[in-house]
């Protein structure tokens, strides 16, 4: 088998660059790689509305887009409603557009038929191990459903669901490739076995990506050297065509680090009269509550010394009440430039947004996510 240099396909160029766009609409993770940044996962996700508007703008202003990949920074199948909405709308507007999905495969088998019906043409399945021992080395936690389960049991579920997703792709005619990130000392000895197993399940190719340390990464794991990557590629190439990538698809617990041109993200920022952030939380520790179920808002913002912390808790109207509830919530959060919540419908996002409160879907610990939104560290109070 050949080892190929990484290069997006060349159709549909704009200014000399291939027009394959990555849409990071997945705000929720269902796994965490041990070596990934914890605090910046959710803040780069965009909504399906923003994603479709971006494709429309590029189509209108810059010409044809070759293809679209729906990807991280979380896991697209952890919030399938957003993924289905984005795929369906793009497929209706641009029926010839090549639509892809980058996923770890959890829940994929049962969703695959509907994904294809929504316009999906191909999948990149992120497979970093084929044994439970290696899964437990690479992943900090795995959440197959709504709750994190013991890692030993979750490792079995992950491997079974990845194999099931691959099998369904073959059955219904969805092309799939695999993307494997090499973590030196953890899964580099299993790369050939990954290629062998996935080739047997019908994979077309393997995208081989080196772990790339980023500022704030946990575990201080170094990037694999050229010799290690060459050996891994040669071994995998016995079973699959190998595409070597400098930084490849890494959803499902790692911040998005490649895979083509990515949508530009505009994060909300504090401003005059709006220095604070509102958060919905059931536990008080994590952003773990749907906006529609919230009975209170935790208000974070800078103290007099500039340190961002929890300032107070505010009650909000009980669930129900439709638009009037969202109007009241906007008044209650009138000094907030953003509201972090695990999920929210279109109506509250529209109402609060019209009042200057940007609703940001998020999934993680409160303090780290709030700190990342402010840019990290103490800030001067200048509003």
Work out the radius of gyration.
21 Å
Specify the structural class.
Answer: alpha/beta
Low-confidence stretches: 1-18, 250-265, 377-383
Shape: globular
Q: pLDDT average, as an integer?
A: 82
Name of the CATH first level of the largest domain: Alpha Beta
Helix tally equals 10
Note the gap between the termini: 60 Å
CATH architecture classification of the largest domain = Alpha-Beta Barrel
Task: Provide structural commentary.
By secondary structure, the chain is α/β, with parallel strands linked by helices. It has 2 domains: 3-244, Alpha-Beta Barrel (TIM Barrel), CATH 3.20.20.70; 276-374, Dinitrogenase iron-molybdenum cofactor biosynthesis domain (Nucleotidyltransferase, domain 5, 2-Layer Sandwich). It has helices at 48-62, 80-93, 108-117, 132-138, 151-172, 191-200, 226-236, 323-332, 346-354, 366-374; strands spanning 3-5, 13-14, 17-18, 20-23, 31-33, 67-70, 98-103, 122-126, 139-142, 175-182, 206-210, 242-244, 276-279, 296-302, 308-315, 336-341, 358-361. Helix 2 links the parallel strand 6 (67-70) and strand 7. The chain is globular and about 60 Å long.
SSE layout:
Elements: E1 3-5, E2 13-14, E3 17-18, E4 20-23, E5 31-33, H1 48-62, E6 67-70, H2 80-93, E7 98-103, H3 108-117, E8 122-126, H4 132-138, E9 139-142, H5 151-172, E10 175-182, H6 191-200, E11 206-210, H7 226-236, E12 242-244, E13 276-279, E14 296-302, E15 308-315, H8 323-332, E16 336-341, H9 346-354, E17 358-361, H10 366-374
Parallel strand pairs: 1-12, 4-6, 6-7, 7-8, 8-10, 10-11, 11-12, 13-16, 16-17
Antiparallel strand pairs: 2-3, 5-9, 13-14, 14-15
């Amino acid at each position: 088998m050949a080892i190929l240099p990484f290069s997006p396909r060349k159709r549909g160029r704009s200014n000399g660059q291939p027009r394959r766009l990555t849409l990071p609409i997945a705000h929720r993770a269902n796994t965490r790689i041990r070596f990934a940044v914890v605090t910046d996962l959710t803040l780069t996700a965009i909504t399906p509305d923003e994603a479709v508007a971006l494709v429309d703008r590029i189509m209108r202003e810059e010409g044809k887009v070759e293809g679209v990949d729906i990807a991280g920074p979380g896991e697209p199948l952890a919030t399938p409603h957003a993924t289905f909405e984005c795929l369906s709308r793009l497929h209706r507007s641009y029926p010839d557009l090549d639509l892809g999905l980058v996923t770890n495969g959890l829940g994929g088998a049962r969703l695959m038929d509907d994904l294809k019906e929504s316009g999906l043409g191909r999948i990149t399945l992120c497979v970093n191990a084929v044994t439970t021992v290696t899964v437990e080395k690479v992943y900090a936690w795995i959440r197959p459903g709504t709750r994190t389960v013991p890692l030993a049991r979750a490792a079995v579920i992950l491997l079974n669901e990845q194999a099931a997703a691959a099998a369904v792709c073959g059955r219904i005619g969805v092309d799939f490739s695999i993307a494997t990130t090499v973590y030196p000392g953890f899964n580099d000895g299993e790369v050939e076995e990954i290629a062998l197993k996935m080739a047997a399940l019908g994979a077309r190719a393997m995208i081989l990506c080196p772990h790339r340390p980023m500022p704030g990464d946990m575990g201080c794991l170094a990037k694999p050297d050229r010799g290690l990557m060459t050996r891994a590629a040669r071994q995998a190439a016995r079973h699959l065509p190998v595409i070597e990538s400098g930084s490849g698809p890494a959803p499902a617990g790692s911040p998005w680090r490649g895979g083509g041109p990515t949508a530009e993200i505009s994060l909300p920022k504090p401003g005059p009269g709006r220095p604070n952030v509102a958060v919905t939380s059931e536990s008080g520790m994590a952003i773990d509550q749907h906006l529609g179920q919230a009975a209170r808002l935790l208000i974070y913002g800078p103290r007099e010394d500039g340190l961002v912390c929890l300032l107070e808790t505010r009650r909000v109207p009980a669930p129900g009440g439709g638009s009037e509830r969202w109007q009241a919530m906007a008044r209650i959060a009138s000094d907030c430039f953003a509201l972090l919540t695990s999920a929210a419908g279109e109506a509250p996002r529209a109402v609060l947004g019209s009042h200057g409160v940007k609703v940001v879907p998020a999934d993680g610990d409160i303090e780290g996510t709030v700190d990342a939104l402010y840019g990290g560290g103490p800030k001067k109070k200048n509003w």
